[in-house]
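Exercise 7. Predict the structure of Ribosomal RNA small subunit methyltransferase I from Streptomyces sporangiiformans.
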Amino acid sequence: MTGTLVLAGTPIGDIADAPPRLGEELAGADVIAAEDTRRLRRLTVALGVQLTGRVVSYFEGNESARTPELVEALADGARVLLVTDAGMPSVSDPGYRLVAAAVEKDIRVTAVPGPSAVLTALALSGLPVDRFCFEGFLPRKAGERRSRLREAAEERRTLVYFEAPHRLDDTLAAMAEVFGEDRRAAVCRELTKTYEEVRRGPLAELAAWAAEGVRGEITVVVEGAPEKGAEELDAEELVRRVRVREEAGERRKEAIAAVAAEVGLPKREVFDAVVAAKNAARTAP
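Solution. The predicted structure, encoded as tokens:
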């Protein structure tokens, strides 16, 4: 019989948030694959757990090389427990490759549900929670980051991002530029920890605050794009929507057709707006 891969959620801050099953799984696993073995040791000491299984490191740098070894252990019947530094494995953390490889081999995959920075920040943000999408970390380069944000500019669901503290001010400034300065957002810092803070406000205001420097683990929640009626859209907005789609990889003809269908206008009207903007740009001094 093949073994079982267990994805175990770990506390994102307060150790008391560890699910009761986590200690049991840590103690009973044949192999524990940990993003940081030193953090794993601190976790087991805090939980009063004695490990009996083999501990191996499993992080971004060795994920590809170590996955076949872990799949082999699973195929031989081992119970393999995967833990990351905080939260659920494979959510912006190592784990996806191992899960995909196990599924391909028809190996059972289960989970010990645990704390999630995504859901915690979303619940605390004060923004709509009925529909949302998780965008993970944005690209580090400014141009790529802006391009990714443009792809999400018309997304009506609430958006959730992770970000490093030293890039937060640049990211919020880019969001204010692409999404609009008045778009509501929340910056959630050090969730469940001693210095937990949730800062809410318009993107421009949050960007100014972050420029002074922010520390800690960061999750950013941004309000989705407002729904506009066709009568509220001027030519500039139609052109902007077409440009966003083009920058995301669509051909102009397809982008024009998509925007026209989206706002309920004839394609000719959107096309004329794009042509007028193009001619205006050519004649501008």
